[in-house]
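Page 47, continued from p. 46.
Same chain as before, 324 aa.
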Amino acid sequence: MSQLDIIKKPVAHEMQTFEKKFRQSMSSRVALLDRITHYIVKRKGKQMRPMFVFLTAKMLGEINESTHRAAGLIELLHTATLVHDDVVDDANMRRGFFSLNALWKNKIAVLVGDYLLSRGLLLALNNDEFKILKIVSNAVREMSEGELLQIEKARRLDIVEDIYFDIIRQKTATLIASCCSAGAASVTTDDAQIERLREFGEAVGIAFQIKDDLFDYETTSITGKPVGIDIKEQKMTLPVIYAVNNADRANKRMIINTIKNHHNNPRKVADLIDYIKGSGGLEYARSKMEEYRDRALQILDEFPVNEGSDSLRSLVNFVIERKK
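Result:
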């Protein structure tokens, strides 16, 4: 049994039921669409988002149909954004599978993303889930703003730490925050609890993204070398920002020049990775990640101790200890 299976145990039955409901929520009479949505279900990832929804609800009360709809809405809208992201990034692979645009071309992928978006909205509206719809719609708006802010700043490579945290809060953390607040809203009308759990999810999401930043500096089992993908994609991640902020003028110029003009040169990227490691950038990013993890765990301390909160605590630790 994997670590995630152990964490999922208190809601394992509900997660199984959710998978069936999620498949049904995407079904269509159009054969092409049905074939594509079947492919989407087949390549699903760790399903951490629905897990956050169900465990939060479990901690506060009894999981119900509203909880299932919250998880379904988030997963539909999240899948729609991923499909559109692959088109925007011209990406051919996602999680080891071919992306929809690689198999069915951009036009179909965009239309499928639109279809998933509409199914999510209808799932909420047909069941009068206005509170949950508001929570999730805000998350989608913030995710779009975060992506655009990153694009705007990446052009000039002038991202300072405050802007970096704004971007990851909107791009990544807001979705996990919506999982926790929507899960809470499915079992309670207490706005203070719903907001507190949104803050919990946001802290987890920020820790999650910093962990992703750190993966870029870990060696791969295939080449034995760090990945450096973020540098190749000219992304200003926390270790890079720290290195820039603590460099003298010559090294600052070297960092920016490598990211701007030599991001496809393996030797220069490797030199930059070595420099960032030597600057203390990784240690700084780890300390920030642990700070957000601790913030999330402190918020959990305000809630009942039960199997739901125990699993949430383990899930928070899994987020920063995961290997991929």
